[in-house]
Amino acid sequence: MKLNEQLKKMSKKQKMGVLTIGMVVLLVGSFGYKAYADNQKALEQERIAKVEKDQQAKEKQLKTDTEKAVNDLFEKAIIDNKDAEKIAIKNDLKDDTVKKVKEQYFVEKTNDAWQKVINDSIVNADNQLKQIDTAKKAVEKVFKDNKVVNTDQKNVDAAKNEVDKIKNAKAKKDLSDKLVKVKADIDKQNKTKEDNKKEAEKASQQTPEAKTTTDNVATKNNSSEQQVADATGQQTNQIEQQAPQNDNGQDTGYYEPQGPGTNNGTGTNQNVAPTDNGNTGVTPTPTPPAPEPTPEPEKPVGPPAGWIVPPYPVGSNELWIWLDANGYSGFDHSDGYIRPY
Fold first, then answer.
1. Number of CB atoms found within 10 A of residue 171's CB
2. 34, 60, 140, 266 — which has fewest CB within 10 A?
3. What is the pTM for the complete model shown?
4. What percent helix, strand, coil does the chain show, rounded to 5?
5. Are 102 and 141 in contact (CB under 8 A)?
């Protein structure tokens, strides 16, 4: 039976009862749906809040990890530090370490102020490493394999300029110590040149005196030689004058010594040749006295004009350095003296 027919047969009172029950059912259903809807909405809001909270926690952790990784590149925290530009990277920082931090935390094209600070700090560390590498290469031009390889002042100054730009104290000291050794070598060379110059000036000042001494000795030697020659000539003349001659003026071949004169009563002295045990009175010709040996000329004091005593052994590297420092290209040497040219 249809609902309409049933309602027609019901009394008014019955109809009111059914209507009341229907309204109650409707109201109960409405309230139940609203409660369910409200419950679902609350659950969704709770889920969204949890997601947002988790996201915030992740962002906070990422920020913490980022700042820690970047700060670890430097000797002290650089993020939010007003002296960030003065802070040096850590000792012996490796290029690979900076590269990994950059790959993880560097963000291209960002407008976030905090991220820009992170980017700038990473670039700062990278630039400091590059400066150390540049300075090392400059120093290697003058000091390599634990020895000085070049003393050109321009190269030394260029290396020092690059080392001065390094912020890390340890790296700066290591390279500066090498430049100190180069400077010590340069100072040693300069001192050697200065000493050689002083020796050359001293030798140059002594040369006129040595020349005067040499000239005096040469004059003395010439005088001695002339005296010997004169003495020899006088002895020869005396022998020739004493040699007897025959009636034709020829030398008889024997020498007749002059004895003490006797007075023959005419007022003149007459030389008488002694006799030898009843012989003819002719005595054997005596051997003429040997001439006195020519004295050796005195050795000149000091080197001849234009020659000097070498300040260093002949053939030594020090002597060549001295010659070069004083504008000479070579030298002659003899009897312990040299003549630079």
1. 23
2. 266
3. 0.49
4. 60, 5, 35
5. no
Q: Residue 330: phi, psi to the nearest 5? A: -175, -170
pLDDT for the residue numbered 263: 46
How many Cα atoms occupy the beta-carbon half-sphere of 29 within 13 Å? 6
Distances (CA, A) of 183 to 160, 197, 320, 324: 11, 21, 22, 21
In order of 117, 210, 223, 288, 335, the CA distances from 219 in angstroms are 94, 14, 6, 32, 21
Ranges of each domain in the chain: 24-59, 72-79+87-185, 304-341
Element at 144 (helix H, strand E): strand 143-144
Cα 265 from Cα 286, distance rounded (Å): 31
309/339 Cα distance (integer angstroms)? 9
DSSP letter string, 55-123: HHHHHHHHHHHHHHHHHTTBSS--TT-TTGGGPPBPTT--HHHHHHHHHHH--SS---HHHHHHHHHHH
Task: Pick the range with the lowest mean pLDDT from 7-16, 140-149, 317-326.
Answer: 7-16
Evaluate whether 220 touches 298 at the Cβ level (below 8 Å). yes
Give strand pairing partners of 245.
251
pLDDT in tens, 107-165: 999 999 999 999 999 999 999 999 999 999 999 999 999 999 999 999 999 999 999 99
Amino acid at 298: E
Strand-strand pairing, 331-334 and 337-340 = antiparallel
